[in-house]
TrEMBL record:
GO terms for biological process: L-leucine biosynthetic process. Homodimer. It is an enzyme of class 2 (transferase). This is 2-isopropylmalate synthase. GO terms for cellular component: cytoplasm. PANTHER family: 2-ISOPROPYLMALATE SYNTHASE 1, CHLOROPLASTIC-RELATED, HOMOCITRATE SYNTHASE-RELATED. InterPro entries: 2-IPM_HCS-like (IPR050073), 2-isopropylmalate_synth_dimer (IPR013709), AIPM/Hcit_synth_CS (IPR002034), Aldolase_TIM (IPR013785), LeuA/HCS_post-cat (IPR054691), LeuA_allosteric_dom_sf (IPR036230), LeuA_bact_synth (IPR005671), PYR_CT (IPR000891). Its cofactor is Mn(2+). It comes from the Bacteria. Residues 389-510 are annotated as: Regulatory domain. Gene3D superfamilies: 1.10.238.260, 3.30.160.270, Aldolase class I. Residues 4-266 form the Pyruvate carboxyltransferase domain.
Length: 510
């Protein structure tokens, strides 16, 4: 069996998903979970992009051990110095520098000749090598590049000290056989290729990211770049869970394995979905809600006779187990504590007591408190640092009423309130919040889903709100969907406030 390394870029390319902006704390939380998942390399961010990203990458490098932490840098001195400053305290740091090599990108975007690009790539790797030994070089838009030119660039950067060569399908244009043949040609023509690891990074514009990455395994690459839930720029990246489970389930075909702890997959997927606000489609392979659900009679009959009839992998392998203890209003501390421990959610005594009292309040409102509800209770606790909180909410709406909402908020010990009308009760409530705070949010995305099945399920609302030039996401959960919407909107306002994207005018203090 060959060992394939998993390079996770959820915190860099994944964060490039429109509407996603993780703060340093959230990045760190995901990074710790990626460590538990067993990824080999964790690309923590693009430090030059913003002070927040720099801070997030730095904290990850300082705190997350047993995994190589990479930072992205364009092929210039400023980016490379900045990336190095962010990761220098890491246990096993990697500078990842890149430049585009396709005729389209060189001509229109970089406005440089191939010779200039070659020179810039070599200089960048040389500078990075003067800082640290592990250097990854990526040829952006490699799959639309000329083979001979690309091999020349790769030969040059190997000589300059690159240890990993990445051959991305940046725009998701390749098809599996064509990509495998392209990779073989590059490997054949690159001098010194035997000294380095070869990597691929596939985008999903044609829905082929995973197929192309697996074709690359067949062509002999050593590293796969991917993101949890396949999030990322445009249609996203190759999904980590799909790659890992394809290699695992079809060892007979690929003759390759990874170091991923598969039982951490479901938990990681849930965490990334929650913190990014990017929901997982129900029929998503491996981690979708329906991935192990059997609906039709003939399938159920087959499953009852022998699970192998319709199940190619057991849900337990990705960490999804049937719950034998149902948590509800009659549950005590032991049962709740045990479930939290099973879920890897360790809380100290005071945080547990606070969570337990909110658990009881929720259990009064719904029959069963599910795993998703527990994750949500823990998340709410983290958001307790919010500076603007909901005090109360009143809405009136109906077939012959103008929807009206009154919202009371707390900010710096003051109680603020105002009322507004809107197209519907949610719109009215958002307008009331803006009126109270003097903000002007424009809702660019709103989605509502039940946290779990059942008529008493909590509603989970995810919003993306534009404040001026900036997009920010928020998420709220409640048994009342208007309250969930308001909590989601307020989370977005709080995040925008912390980043200095909105200012609060306290006109309505009481
Ligand atoms: C395929 C990928 O996913 S690559 C990663 C993409 N991710 C991101 O872009 C997210 C973070 N990006 C950012 O925050 C900003 O774009 C920054 C901070 C990196 C740069 O911001 P700005 O300096 O304002 O430049 P802007 O983004 O407008 O333009 C990019 C510039 O970088 C140049 N550039 C692009 N790629 C590279 C590269 N690999 N190496 C060197 N220069 C590059 C472009 O030619 C352009 O240069 P120009 O200003 O001389 O025309
Ligand atoms: C920076 C590189 C690896 C990239 O993200 C891409 O080519 O898609």
């Amino acid at each position: 069996m060959r060992r394939i390394e998993i390079f996770d870029t959820t915190l860099r390319d994944g964060e490039q998903s429109p509407g996603v902006a993780l703060n340093a704390e959230e990045k760190l939380q995901i990074a710790h979970q990626l460590g538990k998942l067993g990824v080999n390399v964790l690309e923590a961010g693009f430090p030059i992009a913003s002070p927040g990203d720099f801070a997030g990458v730095r904290r990850i490098a300082q705190e997350v051990r047993n995994v190589s932490v990479a930072a992205l840098a364009r092929a210039n001195a400023k980016d490379i110095e900045c990336a190095w400053e962010a990761i220098s305290e890491g246990e096993s740091p990697r500078i990842h520098t890149f430049i585009a090599t396709s005729p389209i990108h060189m001509r229109y975007k970089l406005q440089k000749s191939p010779e200039e690009v070659l020179e810039q790539a070599v200089q960048a790797v040389r500078l990075a090598k003067s800082k640290v030994s592990d250097i990854e070089f990526s040829a952006e838009d490699a799959s639309r590049s000329d083979v001979d030119f690309l091999a020349k660039v790769f030969s040059g950067v190997i000589q300059a000290g690159a240890t990993v060569l990445n051959i991305p399908d940046t725009v998701g244009y390749a098809t599996p056989e064509e990509y495998a043949a392209f990779l073989r040609a590059i490997m054949e023509h690159t001098k010194g290729i035997e000294k380095v690891k070869v990597s691929v990074h596939c985008h999903n514009d044609l829905g082929l990211a995973v197929a192309n990455s697996l074709a690359a395994v067949g062509a002999g690459v050593h590293q796969l770049e991917c993101t949890v839930n396949g999030i990322g720029e445009r249609a996203g990246n190759a999904a980590l869970e799909e790659l890992v489970m394809a290699l695992h389930t079809r060892k007979d075909q690929f003759k390759a394995e990874t170091s991923i702890v598969t039982s951490e997959i479901a938990r990681t997927s849930q965490l990334v979905s929650r913190l990014t606000g990017m929901m997982i489609q129900h029929n998503k392979a491996i981690v979708g809600k329906n991935a192990f659900a059997h609906e039709s009679g003939i399938h159920q009959d087959g499953m009852l006779k022998d699970r192998s009839t319709y199940e190619i992998m057991s849900p337990s392998i990705i960490g999804v187990d049937a719950e034998s203890i149902v948590l509800g209003k009659h549950s005590g501390r032991h049962a709740v504590q045990q479930r939290l421990t099973d879920l890897g959610l360790e809380l100290d005594e005071s945080r547990f007591e606070e969570l337990f009292s909110r658990f009881k309040l929720l259990a009064d409102r719904k029959r069963e408190v599910t795993t998703a509800d527990l994750f949500s209770l823990v998340e709410e606790q983290k958001e307790k640092t919010d500076q603007i909180t909901l005090d109360y909410l009143q809405v009136s709406s109906g077939t012959h009423l103008v929807p009206t909402a009154t919202v009371g908020l707390q900010y710096e010990g003051q109680r603020l309130a105002d009322a507004a009308c809107g197209d519907g009760p949610v719109d009215a409530a958002f307008k009331a919040i803006d009126k109270v705070l003097g903000t002007q949010g424009i809702l660019s995305h709103y989605s509502l889903q039940a946290l779990d099945g059942g008529e008493d399920a909590q509603g989970e609302v995810t919003v993306t709100v534009r404040f001026g030039e900036n997009l920010v996401a928020g998420r709220g959960v409640s048994t009342d969907i208007i309250e969930a919407s308001v909590r989601g909107y307020l989370q977005a306002v709080n995040r925008a406030f912390v980043r200095g994207w909105v200012k609060i005018c306290e006109n309505n203090a009481s």
